[in-house]
Amino acid sequence: MQATAAESNTAPVYKSYNSFDSAKGKVKQLCSLFESANSSSNLATPKVALRPSRSISSSSSFSLSFNNSLIRLPGTEDRIVVYLTSLRGIRRTYEDCYAVKMIFRGFRVCVDERDVSMDAAYKKELQSVLKLKTVSLPQVFIKGKYIGGADVIKSMFEVGELAKILDGIPRRKPGFVCPGCGDARFVPCWNCSGSRKAFDEDEELIKRCLECNENGLIRCLDCCS
């Protein structure tokens, strides 16, 4: 009777151990299945370093397109010219213009920024050079050669090709800001003080000032000469 009672008391313990062992065995089986699946997937899809090869091909293509650029901006062979806008009306356009400005600012190179929102003559100039009625911004010329827009500049920067092309471009001192315009590239007209009206002494009439643009501004002579 005592042995039977003892066996009945220990039976649940044995059952719990057996159930624990079976659960543990199932966990091991699942782990082994996952490990075998991972190992087979690693063998089936090996890791391939595509980034360097893509960078090399992109770099060579950028160099080729730069050297063979047929669109030129006369008189700018010694500088970088960026046509952009400072208006935030179209968010994507403004962000692209700002990104290109920051990339060149990181190299501390002197940039001839031509803001079409500050002077409509720049827009006409760009349309004439590209021979297009509708142009997207920004547009970049380096050493007189047409490069492209924001996507091209970003790609060239990522693969390291932009730094090579900028070799020989004058650099700015760290923290330098134009004392004439504060890097705004424009100053109020000295002839009409930005009013766009000037008095003609010969005819004794108030006429449109011929020295400034439609916004009463002129290019800063200190940084845009």
Present the secondary structure layout:
Layout: H1 2-44, H2 50-67, E1 80-84, H3 91-107, E2 111-115, H4 120-130, E3 139-142, E4 145-148, H5 150-159, H6 161-165, E5 186-188, E6 197-200, E7 205-208, E8 217-219
Parallel strand pairs: 1-2
Antiparallel strand pairs: 1-3, 3-4, 5-8, 6-7
Kindly list the characteristics that best describe this protein:
8 strands; Glutaredoxin; 6 helices; disordered N terminus; single chain
Q: What can you see in these coordinates?
A:
46% of the residues lie in helices and 14% in strands. It has helices spanning 2-44, 50-67, 91-107, 120-130, 150-159, 161-165, and strands at residues 80-84, 111-115, 139-142, 145-148, 186-188, 197-200, 205-208, 217-219. A four-stranded mixed β-sheet has the order 2-1-3-4, sandwiched between helices. Strands 5-8 form a two-stranded antiparallel sheet. A two-stranded antiparallel ribbon has the order 6-7. The longest helix is centred in the N-terminal third of the chain and has 43 residues, at 2-44. The termini are far apart. The model is unreliable at 1-21 and 33-57 (pLDDT under 50).
In the CATH scheme, the class of the largest domain would be Alpha Beta
Give the rounded overall mean pLDDT. Answer: 80
Q: Rg to the nearest angstrom?
A: 34 Å
The termini sit apart by 113 Å
What is the domain total for the residues? 3
Q: Could you describe the largest sheet, including whether it forms a barrel?
A: 4 strands, mixed
In short:
By secondary structure, the chain is α+β, with helices and mostly antiparallel strands. It has 6 helices and 8 strands.
